[in-house]
Design brief:
Number of domains: 2
Strand content: 15-25%
Largest sheet: 6 strands, mixed
Low-confidence stretches: none
């Protein structure tokens, strides 16, 4: 079982008991949504557009005033979704869908994306940092600094001749560990 949010869970379709009641997502009709009682079976496709449509439908259902509560009881747990062909990213999306407060939902997604990008950067090293903390642009002498890649803070000026002043190493850079700040604009910025 996969913990989602509050007391709700998801279960892998292949591990789902045969007698667990559910409703297939594609069988749910908008005008009958108030009759939804059991977990929703969701089959994830290998198609991005289809998956976006699935998530939008689930968001509509979860946020609908017509739906009071839906789940299938199993092993003293409330199963909200029975899912097939899922990934960790989909689980995070389902967790976010169940967060009613929009600000809390956005914060949850923001934190997840920052953590995801940290892992991705550590695994893939797209800027090709070496043991001296120099990126590929710095080794090719096309960057304004000698180390730490783009991790510099600065101020813009109104003077078009200088444009930038006070360029210094970012206070959130932890050498060997990357950025310690949860800031998406920094995490997605690359000079390439």
């Amino acid at each position: 079982m996969i913990s989602l949010y509050n007391e709700y869970y998801a279960i892998d379709f292949d591990k789902c008991p045969d007698n667990l009641p559910y409703t297939k997502l594609e069988e749910i009709k908008e005008d009958e949504i108030e009759n939804l009682k059991y977990a929703i079976k969701v089959e994830i496709k290998n198609d991005f557009e289809s998956n976006i449509k699935i998530l939008k439908n689930l968001l509509f259902i979860v946020n609908s005033d017509k739906v009071t509560d839906f789940y299938s009881p199993y092993d003293n747990k409330k199963i909200r979704f029975i899912i097939k062909n899922y990934s960790n990213s989909l689980i995070k999306a389902l967790q976010a869908l169940l967060i009613k407060d929009e600000k809390t939902r956005v914060e949850f997604l923001y934190d997840y994306l920052c953590d995801y990008l940290d892992i991705l950067w550590n695994e893939k090293n797209p800027c090709q940092f070496d043991e001296n903390s120099s990126c590929i642009a710095q080794r090719m002498k096309v960057a304004p600094h000698e180390m730490h890649g783009c991790c510099y803070s600065f101020n813009y000026t109104k003077n078009p001749m200088t444009f930038i002043t006070k360029s210094e190493i970012c206070q959130y850079l932890a050498c060997g560990k990357g950025c310690t700040e949860k800031n998406l604009s920094c995490k997605i910025f690359v000079c390439k």
